[in-house]
């Protein structure tokens, strides 16, 4: 059947239409569920859910959890778990906050608002996150303490290390440039958003062509041209549509006037402009691409999946699975730092309770996104989609006016149901 | 006489006071199949894991082509062209055939990225030779039959030009037709001058494939013999009773009749 579909000779029926596209049916199911969820909320909220403004907000609210979820995929794929990400995020956020409000301006002497402050603060946070993560990995890989225990301890330890670093105070206001990666305060603007969208589209199309050529050169079966065309259209449409929506969210008049006044100009009459793509979303996209490349195109990624599928086989193939564990948790720590930067920047402050319960959101996002706790299976895009679904569910219910306790009841139920549906799906496809 | 491909001399390893392998010496010549026999727990698999780098021996020396080597990890063993096909089929179930074949030794592009297409092309080539019916190149090996999985494991050893092949119960999980296929393959590899250690419980297999047998009991060698010089019953006697027949060279584990 698949050969027929590949040759494209038959009239495309619905079934071999899909198989010719060679899309992951699981991914399609998740996107379908997401679309239905959005449409339902849109109807219930009288069209307030699918507005450019809400989609913009949903995007920036999901970024922090989504960034960590990409790292959690690797952790869970290798049959580990990380319960400490929320606390780790608090510690690195505290490090970054203290670095930019106290250490760099006062001790190093750069002064408040120095252009290097924001980047040095982020670098300090990433170094801190990587070191803590690597330490977790060493305890797990080399000393053989189960990841559940190490990170359960980490959950308590790092939350309170953050408390010590900040003396329990809320640290802020944060550096002005730093807060731009938080979301609404820092966007590409309409023109650069289009440039970004077009470059991304061209890159996606280019990648498609290169991959097809390579398959052809090796004489492997390739998709029929019409299937490639449909895929290209879908991908381009998705990227440019997303940019268009974010560009349609207009900056409010009063805010625009303030921006112009700050630049010493007056706002032209009747002039409007959109926010465009937030820097934080650009960061998430970059993280997603890098993590996808790591998982599919590098030895590290290959070893992560091999170890998850059969740890003994990986070991016997000469893979240093202990060092691998250290690397995975170090990576997770680094991603926590990036997520912490986004979360703190969005608030404008570093608070003691920043990232509370994020570990559960992150694990839920990865699991809803199809990462199997038994190991060996998981995708980066799935985890990001999982984060989006969780966030949409939560803010959708808030918009509808569902009571707070009921919201959490629904989210918890959805998590369990999603995994059950996934189990049924895997049984059916014999996977 | 030519130098042996592999010489293991006075190998010992113990786990918590149990002498799993106790002063064992075996050797293997190019183009020869040596059967390692014995009960479960006799120490065959442990001995073989020392050679393949999974365990580190407490004492003893290993010579490859007459040169003393130290094997501390599976990587070291591979560097000496020793490849192992494990009883439990050391395959990662969630990866496809090509990823498994090249696991730990991936082909990469100029930029250092894993080159899946090149690996699949190589896999198609070698599988075309070993098992022409093999067609599931893009599904995870979990979806393959026992024989197909075994051919992936063997392809891995063959592709990287093994000189010494260790096969731990290669046919235990296979049907009759697939067992036949593996037997043919062993004969072909032998003809190419590859030395093979074969661990098996199947006496029939051993007599049809092996040139020599080494029998172990309680971590010691009972004796070694050419398969032409001993009978099925005598070998069974070595395995069960530890009694060394006249056609065999007795080892330290042989039962003393005196």
Your description of this structure?
The complex is a heterodimer of chains A (431) and B (258). Chain A is mainly α. Chain A folds into two domains: 25-186 and 278-428, ABC transporter involved in vitamin B12 uptake, BtuC (Orthogonal Bundle), CATH 1.10.3470; 187-277, no CATH class. Chain A is built from 17 helices and no strands. Chain B is an alpha/beta fold. Chain B has a domain at 6-96 and 162-250: Rossmann fold (3-Layer(aba) Sandwich). Chain B is 31% helix and 25% strand. Chain B contains eight helices and eleven strands. Chain B has helices at 44-52, 74-79, 97-101, 116-130, 146-159, 176-191, 203-209, 232-240; strands spanning 6-15, 18-28, 33-38, 59-64, 67-69, 82-85, 164-168, 195-199, 212-217, 220-226, 249-250. A seven-stranded mixed β-sheet of chain B has the order 6-7-8-3-9-10-11, sandwiched between helices. In chain B, a hairpin with a 2-residue loop joins strand 4 and strand 5 (67-69). In chain B, helix 4 (116-130) packs across helix 5 (146-159) and helix 5 (146-159) packs parallel to helix 6. The A-B interface holds A 214-215, 217-220, 293, 296-299, 301-303, 305-310, 312-319, 376-377, 430-431 and B 52-54, 73-75, 78, 84, 86, 88, 90-95, 99-100, 103-106, 108, 112-114, 116-118, 120-121, 142-143.
Topology (SSEs and partners):
The complex is a heterodimer of chains A (431) and B (258).
Chain A (H helix, E strand, L loop, with lengths): L1 H6 L6 H8 L3 H20 L7 H26 L7 H24 L8 H25 L5 H20 L22 H30 L6 H23 L5 H10 L16 H19 L1 H11 L1 H6 L4 H27 L10 H11 L11 H21 L3 H25 L3
Chain B lengths: L5 E10 L2 E11 L4 E6 L5 H9 L6 E6 L2 E3 L4 H6 L2 E4 L11 H5 L14 H15 L15 H14 L4 E5 L7 H16 L3 E5 L3 H7 L2 E6 L2 E7 L5 H9 L8 E2 L8
Helix pairs in contact in B: 4-5, 5-6
User: What is the CATH architecture assignment of one domain in chain B?
Assistant: 3-Layer(aba) Sandwich
Name the helicity range of chain A: over 70%
The major sheet of chain B is characterized as: 7 strands, mixed
CATH class of the largest domain in chain A: Mainly Alpha
Main-sheet strand order of chain B equals 6-7-8-3-9-10-11
* Cα Rg of chain B: 19 Å
Mean pLDDT of chain A: 88
Element order, helices and strands of chain A? HHHHHHHHHHHHHHHHH
Poorly predicted regions of chain B are none
Number of strands of chain B: 11
Distance linking N and C termini of chain B: 34 Å
CATH topology of the largest domain in chain A: ABC transporter involved in vitamin B12 uptake, BtuC
Q: Which regions of chain A have little confidence, pLDDT < 50, spanning 5+ residues?
A: 1-12
CATH homologous superfamily grouping of one domain in chain B: P-loop containing nucleotide triphosphate hydrolases
- Distance separating the two termini of chain A: 18 Å
Q: What is the CATH C level class of one domain in chain B, in words?
A: Alpha Beta
Form type of chain B: globular
Return the structural class of chain B: alpha/beta
**Secondary-structure-derived class of chain A:** mainly alpha
Number of helices of chain A: 17
């Amino acid at each position: 059947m698949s050969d027929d579909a590949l040759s494209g000779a038959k009239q495309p029926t619905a079934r071999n239409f899909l198989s010719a596209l060679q899309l992951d049916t699981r991914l399609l199911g998740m996107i379908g569920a997401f679309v239905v969820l959005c449409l339902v909320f849109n109807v219930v909220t009288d069209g307030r859910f699918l507005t450019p403004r809400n989609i913009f907000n949903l995007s920036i609210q999901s970024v922090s959890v989504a960034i960590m979820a990409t790292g959690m995929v690797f952790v869970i794929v290798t049959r580990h778990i990380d319960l400490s990400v929320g606390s780790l995020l608090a510690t690195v956020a505290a490090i970054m906050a203290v670095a930019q409000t106290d250490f760099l301006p006062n001790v190093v002497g750069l002064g408040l608002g120095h252009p290097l402050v924001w980047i040095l603060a982020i670098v300090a946070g990433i170094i801190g996150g990587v070191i803590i993560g690597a330490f977790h990995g060493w305890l797990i890989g080399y000393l053989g303490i189960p990841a559940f225990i190490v990170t359960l301890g980490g959950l308590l330890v790092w939350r309170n290390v953050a408390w010590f670093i900040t003396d329990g105070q809320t640290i802020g206001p944060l550096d002005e440039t730093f807060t731009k990666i938080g979301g609404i305060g820092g966007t590409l603007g309409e023109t650069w958003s289009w440039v970004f969208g077009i470059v991304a589209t061209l890159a996606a199309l280019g990648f498609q062509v290169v991959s097809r050529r390579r398959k052809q050169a090796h004489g492997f079966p390739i998709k029929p041209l019409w299937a490639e065309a449909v895929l290209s259209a879908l991908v381009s449409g998705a990227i440019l549509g997303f940019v268009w929506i974010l560009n349609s969210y207009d900056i409010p008049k009063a805010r625009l006037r303030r921006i112009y006044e700050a630049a010493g100009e007056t706002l032209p009459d009747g002039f409007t402009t959109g926010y465009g793509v937030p820097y934080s979303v650009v960061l998430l996209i970059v993280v997603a691409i890098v993590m996808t490349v790591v998982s599919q195109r590098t030895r590290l990624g290959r070893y992560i999946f091999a170890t998850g599928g059969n740890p003994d086989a990986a070991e016997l193939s000469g893979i240093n699975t202990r060092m691998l564990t250290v690397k995975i948790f170090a990576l997770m720590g680094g991603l926590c730092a990036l997520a912490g930067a986004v979360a703190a920047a969005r608030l404008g402050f570093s608070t003691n309770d920043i990232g509370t319960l994020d570990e559960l959101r992150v694990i839920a996002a990865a699991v809803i996104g199809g990462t199997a706790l038994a190991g060996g299976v998981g995708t980066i895009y799935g985890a990001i989609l999982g984060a989006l679904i969780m966030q949409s569910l939560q803010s959708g219910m808030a918009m509808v006016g569902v009571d707070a306790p009921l919201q959490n009841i629904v989210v918890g139920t959805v998590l369990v149901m999603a995994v059950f549906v996934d189990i049924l799906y895997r049984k059916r496809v014999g996977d | 006489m030519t130098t042996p491909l592999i010489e293991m001399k006075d190998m010992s390893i113990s786990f918590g006071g149990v002498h799993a392998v106790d002063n064992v010496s075996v050797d293997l010549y190019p183009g020869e199949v040596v059967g390692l026999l014995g009960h479960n727990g006799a120490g065959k698999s442990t001995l073989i894991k020392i050679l393949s780098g999974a365990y580190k021996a407490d004492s003893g020396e290993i010579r490859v082509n007459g040169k003393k080597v130290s094997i501390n990890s599976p990587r070291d063993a591979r560097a000496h062209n020793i490849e192992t096909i494990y009883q439990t089929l050391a395959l990662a179930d969630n990866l496809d055939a090509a990823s498994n074949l090249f696991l730990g030794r991936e082909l990469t592009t100029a930029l250092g990225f894993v080159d899946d297409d090149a690996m699949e092309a190589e896999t198609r080539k070698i599988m075309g030779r070993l098992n022409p019916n093999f067609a599931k190149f893009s599904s995870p090996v979990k979806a393959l039959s026992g024989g197909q999985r075994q051919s992936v494991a063997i392809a891995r050893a063959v592709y990287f030009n093994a000189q010494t092949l260790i096969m731990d119960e290669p046919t235990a999980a296979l049907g009759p037709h697939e067992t036949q296929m593996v037997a043919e393959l062993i004969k072909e590899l032998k003809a190419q001058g590859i030395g093979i250690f074969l661990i098996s419980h199947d006496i029939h297999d051993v007599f049809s494939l092996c040139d020599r047998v080494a029998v172990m009991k309680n971590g010691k060698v009972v004796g070694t013999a050419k398969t032409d010089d001993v009978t099925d019953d005598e070998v069974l006697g070595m395995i069960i009773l530890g009694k060394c027949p006249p056609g065999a060279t007795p080892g330290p584990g042989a039962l003393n009749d005196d």
